[in-house]
Amino acid sequence: MRDMDGDRLYTIGEVSRRTGLPVKTIRFYSDSGVLAPSGRTHAGYRLYDLAAVVRLDLVRTLRELGVDLATIRRVLAREISVSAVAAAHADALEAQIRTLRLRRAVLRAVAGRGSSQEELELMHKLVRLSDEERRRIIADFLDEVFEGLDVIPEFAAKMRAGIPQLPDDPSPAQVEAWVELAELVQDPDFRARIRQMMEHQAATRGQIRVPDKAAELADLTLERVAAAQAAAIAPESPEANAVVDELAAAYATAYGETDGPEFRRTLLERMRVGNEPRAERYWQLIAVINGMPEIPTLTPLFEWFITALEARV
Length: 313
Description:
Elements: E1 10-11, H1 12-19, H2 23-31, E2 39-40, E3 46-48, H3 50-64, H4 69-76, H5 82-113, H6 117-127, H7 131-146, H8 153-161, H9 172-185, H10 188-204, H11 214-230, H12 241-255, H13 261-274, H14 277-289, H15 299-310
Antiparallel strand pairs: 1-3, 2-3
Helix pairs in contact: 5-6, 5-9, 6-9, 7-10, 9-14, 11-12, 11-15, 13-15
């Protein structure tokens, strides 16, 4: 059959055969106003021209891509371009993909840990937070421990710069690290301990000169203590005297002070305040989440030096 211009018209059955779409689907699109018929037979059956068939292919493609009928109507009415629709749906799909990746990581973490229902719910809750909501958890922790304190600006800046960024496709280890970090920074005891460290820093700021080569001093401590431990030297033993004397002298020089009983008591206090395993764990977890190199556990080495100092002051 042809229309008044001589163009071929197709019945709904013929359109179905040409496109592979069921008659029921084509009729649904027609009833929904997405695909208006080009004409009708004398008996009232719908007819479609070639342009309608082409539009139907576009409708099918957009529907398979998840575009809703209301948007498709706007595309066909030229109220919105196909490229704009594609861009919007690509963004939506990207968000869905990120969500699915997070869910996959959670499930793998749960499967690997043999997690309880409570752990599963906690993991699911935390990873569903937006990046901004996750950053807010850490920011709230830092706001509390720094509030009203005149701490060293460089140190505060380092703490605030160390914000975990859970990637779009995290590993189970990164999910576990994020959950552990969230629990850690919301632990009242941990917050109180870090606050105590910040208060001590603020109280002694200006009284104590921060060594210019603090990192080298720490490396020296770790090197000497590791060697002592490898030699099975107990921190309270006489064999540890040489290690303590060398390190105490190095610290005194770095701080511009003179080694002696008074300095060692002050050094011991500083070491006790600054040596917190959970603070070290905080940075280790952030490194895992952010895909940074692993941070080794060093607090046991400093604990050896602290014990050695305690035995001699």
